[in-house]
């Protein structure tokens, strides 16, 4: 996998996702220069006693308490220690890597003022696979997640090297580094901004994008198995509905089902198909349009400084600006909308699964069981899909509207971008399970198909790919083993 280098142009969501999945991250000379110059401005602010939030003042509701120079290092250290109060199981390694990569990219804009030594330590940990254990819960925005990373830099906390856990101090020693003594502003910058939500968002996008393609494929297999109408996805009529996503899905379905003998046999047998089949371009397409908007928002977030305060100007004319750039309102709204879009894709897939297993509408053996009565086949797999679709509906409630008041009314509106990204990932995970069930059920339907027509070329190819790994199901093994194998195919192929 090619290295990713932070240059003059901001990183994209795809690049952050690539780092999360194993690519190395590096700073270009220009990015290093921006970091060094921003630090020089912070040093001048400190030397001149120019007031700056979190530089020489307390934080949160203590923002008007002036901190003298002798205590500014203690302030930075104490911010890390006191903010490290997250709970729950740690993030998975890719999620933690994505957060670290987004954090480094944020510092590389050159408006935060952390030292280059601090950024280099983060890079060294990331590229060595020494990933901080970041508790997954307990943040309304970003503070607790990011503090878990900062802990490691000062020799506390713990990391995972891919096999075992070790202390932050031992992790640094493995890299030949001593624990950092954080300078003015560094403690605040290390816990600030939206890299936590942004990093998680990049992985939600990356995983959803692949699953959207699989969902189109699964829909095509189901459509062919149920004897649907061959012209429902014709290009001319679909073009009457203006949606880039709809057109893309329509083209994919036409490609999968081109010259299908099975569909030729069923042509004209009904006026129109049920919506879970006929509206695939409309539902999948709307989700893709939402995806494109969310991807744009995440890329804008990566192009933006999300630290507070921002330092600017020059060493001769230093500036410090207390804005609300750390508030992730746009990101929270975007991730809520992605969660809803993915949940809707999962819901229509579950409806298609039901049609495959229901003998009242499928024309197939009940529950796709070879010996119904003795065998249950896919009866309970559909239950699983229904349960996950229902869970998605609960998860899709907007986090960005949760609100809340913290820090003694100083932070009296919260936009919950990190929780929104976290639950979007959970929805995507459920979606993967549901699509895996639909693909398994559709493959089983081909094996029990009473129609004599052959499959289309592409649907037939996908069926063969599934059957190379997963044989026909005959109530002869735990079905969750097949589901795990199918999920592995989704993650690794194509």
From TrEMBL:
GO terms for molecular function: ammonia-lyase activity. It holds the Pfam family Lyase_aromatic. Coiled coil: none annotated. InterPro entries: Aromatic_Lyase, Fumarase/histidase_N, L-Aspartase-like. It comes from the Bacteria. This is Histidine ammonia-lyase.
